[in-house]
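Chain X:
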Amino acid sequence: MAATTNTRKAALVLALLALLPPSILGARTRPSSPHHSQGHKRSPPPASPTPPPPAPAAPSEAAGLVRATCNSTAYYDLCMSTLGADPSSATADVRGLSSIAVSAAAVNASGGAATAVALATGGNTTTAVDGTVQALLRTCATKYGEARDTLSAARDSIAQQDYDYSSVHVSAAAEYPQVCRVLFQRQRPGEYPPELAAREETLRRLCTVALDIITLLSNNTN
């Protein structure tokens, strides 16, 4: 009797399930959506702000050495511009800076010799140059050439750490152009070319700067 009752109940359940719409059955049996199970995706965190640029580097030790060296000279601005124009001053010691100063003076002397030759040949003017002035200008070219060679010898003495001889050479180089000016004053007063006058003054100042640095170098060595 009980078995018959259970069989009837099972048959009734199956009959009721057969009568339900498929959509209801699917809704009951469909697994939960992965979308609902995982929840909303999180958005990526905002990018970190760009770091500010680094602060400018402090003045290098080499630049400080150049300033300190030029402070010991009679012509600070000329010294700074002269040494600063040579890239090797960024890594040079005081001896290297003295060599740079001497080299700059030698370049000026070489330019003075070329200027005197150009004036003697009339390269800078359409006016004919008389014989006396030509002879004076050739002498000037020779004197500037001697100044250049003497400065080259001074540079060699610095390399050998013979600072006394280098000072003697630089002092002599500053005096050679004065011979040119004195000769013009004696034989052609008022006709000393302004181009050579400018060269002479610049060379004198460059030699003074070089001498001051050599003196500083010599004092630091002793």
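Chain Y:
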Amino acid sequence: MQGRLPAGRAGAGSHGAGLVRTTCSSGGGPGAGAGPPGARPSEGSLDPLYPRTYGALLKVAQMVTLLIAFICVQSSAWNRYSAYTYFEVVTICNLIMILVFYLVHLFRLYRVLTCISWPLSELLHYLIGTLLLLIASIVAASKSYNQSGLVAGAIFGFLATFLCLASIWLSYKISCVTQSTDAAV
């Protein structure tokens, strides 16, 4: 998905009128890896190529680390503080949302539910979810009191935060391109 937005109004003979290009490459969205416009890898509702894409593998790694972080904190004896309840809620909500986006791409539900902007929804989820996960991991690490399960949960929380940041970085690239508006008469 590419959109072009004018960065400013260019007068006659001005240089540096910029375009902002945003590119979404979440690895399975509409048109990703489809080749020519009429060619499709398969006609069914299941995308057999999606589980092998970088976006899918990154989502699986995120889900696994979030599940390990949740299990580490849940199995600890000192998990009744509100900081750990918040950590558990954030990890499970992120896990569920990442699973939903994985299934949307796997079963090509973006073709059926066209009223939702899936790239924008996924971007907003990653921005908000990563910020909440970072906060939860910092709080969990500061309240761990050297309990091994809590420390391990916080470490896996930080690892999941890093994987979410990597997903944002790799999937949603924003670049500013300058173009000259001088036209030869």
